[in-house]
Write a structure and sequence with these properties.
The structure holds two protein chains of two kinds. Chain A is of the alpha/beta class. Chain A has five helices and five strands, in the order βαβαβααββα. In chain B, strand 4 and strand 5 form a beta hairpin.
Chain lengths: 126, 230
């Protein structure tokens, strides 16, 4: 299951379409995403850093602080210049820019990370 | 010169967002995999996004023309304008899972305003409410009499307007587009447009802070012709 956190529902739908093989949930703000993350247990998160209300960094800080959620891979979506920032400590595995991202780029992250965690879960259950 | 460059930058920022969305929507088309309903849904979104961007460009052009005094002031039926705005934004509210409630409590039916400019003011307030309310939240468009004038207000239940921004507004509304903290992604262009148009119409515009959101309003003089109907 893939969690998409963005205040822009049209953008959220576009990302969900690109993930079409996987279940997706779109949430519009950081607080709701923080509240529901345990219940949803996503395999991968696409996170728009520019959210209404508390921004994406609030969400990143929160999930990084718990061992259960710190391992969830996050792809941030932003046009901000993040070159000086080490986002790997938040579990960020990639960055997409709104101006240049394509469905193929989104699919690559899904194939790499959602499948990886799925196979780990399958191994554990076996 | 500096304010001119800032204005250009703000306009560019605001227009980049819908263009980016149009691009994403166009990339979403998959004629092999998607059915007619899905394709129609994407098409409708593209039309909606582009129409909003076109409206914004038109509003920016109007600001440039304000000094020429081309906008005629006349008696305007304020409820009819509100109805038109709501009709235009209904699908957007619905798609974003927001609700807009309308409450008409004004006795005075006509105000002195410019129809186009007033439409833009109310439109920008409502658009602001969509953008900055939580999911499934309601916004309220109210029209009521207030101190001998007619007040049109839009109340949202989003992030509260920071007190320093509110103070700036009290001093003289918005002199230039200003990004509002807790409302990221917004250059404040919509509110700046609303304030310029309100000033042209000699209408008072303002904001009210609530614990759980913000109201933006414009107050307009009652048209003397209104007395003919009462």
């Amino acid at each position: 299951m893939i969690l998409i956190v963005t205040s822009d529902l049209i953008l959220g739908e576009c990302i969900a379409r690109a993930c079409n093989d996987e279940g997706t949930v779109i949430l519009g703000d950081a607080f709701e995403a923080i509240e529901r993350i345990d219940e949803l247990a996503p395999d991968l998160i696409f996170l728009d850093l520019l959210l209404t209300g508390p921004d994406g960094f609030t969400f990143l800080n929160e999930i990084a602080s718990y061992p259960e959620t710190a391992r969830i891979p996050v792809v941030v979506i932003s046009d901000l210049d993040l070159s000086g920032q080490d986002l790997a400590i938040y579990g960020v595995v990639g960055k997409l820019q709104k101006d240049t991202m394509t469905p193929e780029m989104i699919k690559k992250f899904v194939q790499k990370h959602a499948r990886t965690l799925k196979s780990l879960k399958t191994l554990k259950e076996a | 010169m500096e304010s001119e460059v800032n204005g250009i930058l703000v306009a560019a920022h605001e227009l980049k967002a819908p263009l980016g969305l149009m691009r994403q929507l166009a990339l979403s088309f998959d004629f092999d995999e998607q059915n007619t309903n899905e394709l129609e849904h994407i098409r409708a979104q593209m039309v909606d996004v582009s129409e909003r961007a076109i409206r914004q460009v038109r509003d920016l052009t109007k600001i440039a023309k304000l000094e020429n005094g081309l906008f005629v002031m006349e008696p305007v039926a304020v409820r009819a304008i509100c109805d038109d705005v709501v009709r235009e934004l209904q699908s957007l509210f619905h798609f974003n899972q927001r609700e807009l409630r309308i409450k008409y409590a004004n006795r005075a039916r006509l105000v002195t305003a410019n129809r186009e400019l007033l439409y833009s003011v109310i439109y920008n307030f409502c658009l602001n409410a969509i953008s900055f309310s939580g999911e499934r939240a309601r916004s309220e468009l109210t029209v009521r009499d207030h101190a001998g004038k007619v007040r049109v207000g839009v109340r949202d239940y989003g992030p509260v307007l920071p007190v320093d921004v509110w103070r700036e507004m009290r001093r003289g509304w918005i002199k230039k587009p200003t990004s509002i903290p807790m409302r990221p992604g917004s250059s404040g262009l919509g509110l700046y447009i609303a304030s310029k148009f309100s000033a042209y119409m000699d209408a008072e515009a303002g904001a009210v802070r609530h614990r759980d959101g913000t109201s933006f309003y414009v107050e307009l003089p009652v048209s003397r012709q209104a007395s003919l109907f009462e």
